[in-house]
Design brief:
Strand content of chain B: under 5%
Radius of gyration of chain A: 23 Å
Largest sheet of chain A: none
Oligomer: heterodimer
Distance between the termini of chain B: 21 Å
Shape of chain A: elongated
CATH class of the largest domain in chain B: Mainly Alpha
Order of helices and strands of chain B: HHHHHHHHHHHH
Strand content of chain A: under 5%
Distance between the termini of chain A: 23 Å
Number of helices of chain B: 12
Mean pLDDT of chain B: 87
Radius of gyration of chain B: 24 Å
CATH topology of the largest domain in chain B: MetI-like fold
Number of strands of chain A: 0
Helix content of chain A: over 70%
Largest sheet of chain B: none
Mean pLDDT of chain A: 88
Structural class of chain B: mainly alpha
Structural class of chain A: mainly alpha
Helix content of chain B: over 70%
Low-confidence stretches of chain A: none
Number of helices of chain A: 11
Low-confidence stretches of chain B: none
CATH superfamily of the largest domain in chain B: MetI-like
Largest interface: A-B, 52 and 53 residues
Chain lengths: 249, 261
């Protein structure tokens, strides 16, 4: 109730300030102008291409990151030596905001879709890797001991104890990585691109078409919300077998 | 083996650096078709690092600008975020008001606002400061809010029944129990503010380490780009370490949980 009216008040004040000319609408636009720009962009269809490009970059980079990070994280968690070998690189990459590498990536991969895919990949791969790794190394010690003393093979232990125990960690990583991936798409496209929502925002911003900028921001916001929701659903699906901890809902 | 970790780590780094250096030296260079311009090499980067710090000294101005942006932005984020979060945790009505805005903001990569911020405040210091505030204020506010909400209800009840004023409760119960949450929020904010500096400067700036990286990148001075990346990585590590020190300091009174170290 209060939330709803706060949001409503925000939009109304924004509209009034713009209409009354207290602040030039050129700079802050107004909700009606944004709505109209959004309608036009979709009606004229010029936005579909940007959406398609951004979505392709996001999905390719994110899925590649998952395909690399989850097996690698499991392996690094399982084989201590491998962890020792790779940890300097993982730690360094974790310390740098990966978007810093953007100018290099543009030199290497050009300003097309692949430079964005690489940025998304780099942004997403580290949190996935670190979470998967943590999941493996925090496997329940007692279960491992019981399994070993009853003569379970390494493969059995991996499939029945380590992997199920790691799933929640993997999902935490996937969720965190989704935010990173989205950041990668936007920054990559703001910096150098020929299409995409970030590119649309940058162009509209440079030409002071503030209403279009807001449409772009809203689309990015929506994409973020949808991604989180999809991952939440997936997580519930994978975790359905787990007994609920805490009070009954 | 006792030093296995250090040995294996050092070995893999050494192999990596050797391969990298070797890429651009030797007869295979022509067949691989890699040139110094694209990949640089550890020795070239070391030379560039030395030159930029001690010969031409060109990096000091960039470092000063970036640090200033970082410091101002982070300070503002703390000054706004902590009181706002504590208040939103304490007064449910305020929480209802700010909640939709906070969740909308946290679903968006805040850097999408950058072109807008530049239209509003220009390409100087303040566009970077505002982007840092936008990025860093969220984890701080959210953690401050969570901190108040998870205060031990038993403590509150005891304090109330002994007639403490709201202010006493706030000072003696809320704030001390909020500290670990706040520190967790600050730790997240440190990294995000760093993203803000870098992205803000890459996108539009006139000085700063991010700007230097951008310039060097567009003129194919790959060695300089790597110097910039190293400087930023090092600053990130230093900031995290500083925060860890502060954490140990303010948390020293707390009884330790779990196994002895």
């Amino acid at each position: 109730m209060i939330s709803g009216s706060a949001v409503l008040a925000f939009f109304v004040i924004w509209e009034i300030v713009a209409r009354a000319g207290l602040i030039d609408p050129l700079f802050i636009s107004s909700p009606t102008l944004v709505a109209r720009a959004g309608y036009q962009l979709f009606a004229e269809g010029e936005i579909w291409n940007d959406l398609r490009v951004s979505a392709a970059e996001f999905l390719t980079g994110y899925l590649l990151a998952a395909a690399v990070a989850i097996p690698l994280g499991l392996a690094v968690g399982w084989y201590t030596r491998l962890y020792f070998l790779l940890s300097p690189f993982i730690d360094v990459l974790n310390a740098v905001p990966r978007v810093t590498l953007l100018p290099l990536i543009v030199i290497w991969f050009g300003i097309g879709i692949w430079s964005k895919v690489v940025v998304v990949f780099l942004g997403a791969v580290i949190p996935m890797l670190i979470n998967t790794f943590t999941g493996v190394t925090t496997s329940e010690e007692r279960f491992l001991r019981v399994a070993r003393s009853l003569g379970a093979s390494d493969l059995t232990i991996f499939w029945t104890i380590v992997l199920p125990g790691t799933v929640p960690f993997i999902f935490t990583g996937l969720k965190y990585a989704a935010g990173r991936a989205l950041l990668g798409v936007v920054v990559g496209e703001l910096y150098a691109a020929t299409a995409g929502i970030g590119h649309l925002i940058a162009i509209a911003g440079n030409t002071l078409q503030t209403d279009k900028v807001f449409v772009g921001i809203l689309l990015v916001m929506l994409a973020g919300l949808v991604t989180v929701e999809v991952l939440d659903r997936l997580e519930r699906r994978f975790d359905a077998w787990r007994p609920t901890v805490g009070s009954a809902p | 083996m006792k030093h296995e970790r250090a040995l294996l780590g050092a070995a893999s780094v050494a192999v990596f650096l050797t391969l990298w250096e070797g890429l651009t030296r030797g007869w295979w260079t022509e067949h691989l078709r890699v040139s110094q311009i694209f990949v640089s090499s550890p020795s070239a980067i070391a030379v560039a690092f030395y030159r930029m710090f001690f010969v031409t000294g060109e990096i000091w101005n960039d470092l000063r600008v970036s640090s200033l942006e970082y410091a101002v932005g982070f300070f503002l984020a703390v000054v706004v975020g902590i009181p706002l979060g504590l208040a939103a945790g304490w007064y449910p009505r305020l929480h209802y008001v700010v909640e939709p805005f906070l969740s909308a903001l946290s679903a968006t990569p805040q850097v999408a606002f950058l072109p807008l911020l530049i239209a509003w405040v220009g390409i100087g210091l303040w566009s970077k400061v505002t982007v840092i505030v936008l990025l860093a204020v969220l984890p701080i506010t959210i953690s401050a809010q969570a901190a108040v909400k998870t205060v031990d209800a038993g403590l509150l009840k005891v304090a109330r029944s002994f007639g403490s004023s709201e202010w006493q409760i706030f000072r003696d119960i809320i704030v001390p129990s909020a500290v670990p949450f706040l520190l967790a929020g600050l730790r997240l904010a440190v990294g995000r503010a760093m993203i803000g500096v870098v992205v803000g400067e890459l996108y539009a700036a006139t000085a700063g380490v991010g700007f230097m990286i951008h310039l060097a990148g567009s003129s194919f001075q790959t060695d300089k780009v790597f110097v910039g990346v190293i400087v930023i990585a090092a600053s990130g590590l230093v900031l995290i370490e500083v925060l860890r020190r502060i954490e140990r300091r303010v948390e020293a009174w707390r009884p330790r949980v779990g196994a002895a170290a």
